[in-house]
Amino acid sequence: MNELILKYGVNPNQKPSRVFVEDGNLPITVVNGKPGYINLLDALNGWQLVKEMKEATGLPSATSFKHVSPAGAACGKPLSPTLRSIYFIEDGLELTPLACAYARARGADRMSSFGDFIALSDPCDRATALLIKKEVSDGIIAPGYDADALEILKAKKKGGYCIIQIDKDYVPPELERKMVFGVNFEQGHNFIKLDADCLKNIVTKNKDLSKEEIDNLLVSLIILKYTQSNSVCYVKDGQAIGIGAGQQSRIHCTRLAGDKADKWWLRQSPRVLELPFVDDIRRPDRDNTIDVYTGDDADDVLRDGEWQKFFKTRPAPFTREERLAWIKQNTDVAVGSDAFFPFGDNIERAHRSGARVVAQPGGSIRDDDVIAACDKYGMTMAFTGIRLFHH
Questions:
Q1: Beta-strand relationship, 162-166 and 175-180
Q2: Which pLDDT score, from 0 to 100, does residue 344 have?
Q3: Which residues make beta-bridge pairs with 277?
């Protein structure tokens, strides 16, 4: 099959719509459901991301995509009891490495992952399907599906859940094209390989990079390769904890990603873990309530007449001072940027969210200022010389 007719394009008024290849066959098979235009953009970008992440780390990988950028991505490291709790994994549910990867990817930013499109580096197994079953999701792409996993997934969305199988050996043509406003664009596909060699140019006084830190930096760079630019990514323990995508200003990317990383860390605080939610609260309501409770607008869920909708008893406010004290305990975070940091303020902001190591292309006229900011905190920074814009 070299063509797939779609219901419509990015918006319902954009018809007709299709995806096709000029030579050979499409590398995807629709196993169930009917993918849309944006679904396929998410699927094909997500598949490239997890494929490269597994190649870099050797671990099964997963990503949760929304509107052509990852909301989260992770490799399949085991979950601590705290992470199982904040990712709402049922007691006694045995997780495979692939299931751990998806739990981390979905759990990084649950607000943004609502209605995601999932990409898996490995065939979907039953444990991963059981996690997906409970989440609001539009679809999934993977190189295969175990029979019992497929049965679970086909039951989602009243049988309409979009399931796509990708040819894991597919290699795209060297040239890629798209049309904008009747004008054809052509460029070479971004085949650049991100590995430890791109982190050898360490420009700070601190030259130390552990194997774990190298892996975390590579994860951040691979995520950025498939994130709408400008973008900055914070990674810890093999998973994205904050992604700032599609911002015109680099510092806004850094702040957005840092704020998301802070939210991820705040969810692990005893104050949040002990929130007395009502028994029948829905997952999206619980996620939204936690997001509001850990911010400056907490009164929206704590004022009289509102808290009763979410909690059995009214929890004490999580004060700004208490939140900042908890955030300071986050450490060993890796930060990547898809283009150079123009000012040291990016480093200052990243440091406040636990950044220890940084990877960025370098090349700013103010590189010295950025290096000095890293040296101030004893951070290690590598200049990759590689820009990773994605549009």
A1: unpaired
A2: 95
A3: 311
Give the span between the Cα atoms of 191 and 52, in whole angstroms.
10
Q: What's the confidence (pLDDT) of residue 74?
A: 98
Which residue in the list 158, 207, 211, 391 is annotated as catalytic?
391
34 has catalytic annotation: no
CA distance 172 to 170: 7
pLDDT at residue 91 in the model: 87
Residue in 230, 236, 260, 330 annotated catalytic: 230
Sheet containing 231-236, strands listed edge to edge, beginning at the edge strand earlier in sequence: 28-32, 162-166, 137-142, 116-120, 61-66, 69-75, 239-245, 231-236, 333-337, 355-360, 380-383
230 assigned to active site = yes
Q: What pLDDT was estimated at residue 230?
A: 94
Per annotation, catalytic residue among 67, 133, 154, 252: 67
How are beta strands 355-360 and 380-383 bridged, if at all? parallel
Cis peptide before 216 (omega within 30 of 0): no
> What does the pLDDT read at residue 157?
95
- The label of the residue with tokens 């990016």 reads 346
Q: What is the mean pLDDT of each run of 10 residues along the chain (391 residues)?
A: 92 95 93 96 98 96 96 97 93 94 96 96 98 96 98 96 97 94 96 96 97 97 97 97 96 97 97 95 94 96 95 96 97 97 96 98 95 97 97 93
Prediction pTM value? 0.96
Task: Specify the 3-state DSSP secondary structure of 365.
Answer: coil
In sequence order, the β-bridge partners of residue 235 are: 240, 334
**Inter-residue contact 153 to 161 (CB < 8 Å):** yes
Q: Is 391 a catalytic residue?
A: yes
Choosing from 39, 45, 51, 66, the catalytic residue is: 66
Catalytic site includes residue 66 = yes
Q: Residue 373 corresponds to which tokens in the numbers above?
A: 């900011």
Structure tokens at 259: 């704020």
> Which residues are registered as beta bridge partners of 295?
none
Which positions ≥6 away from 126 have C-beta within 8 Å? 146, 148, 149, 152
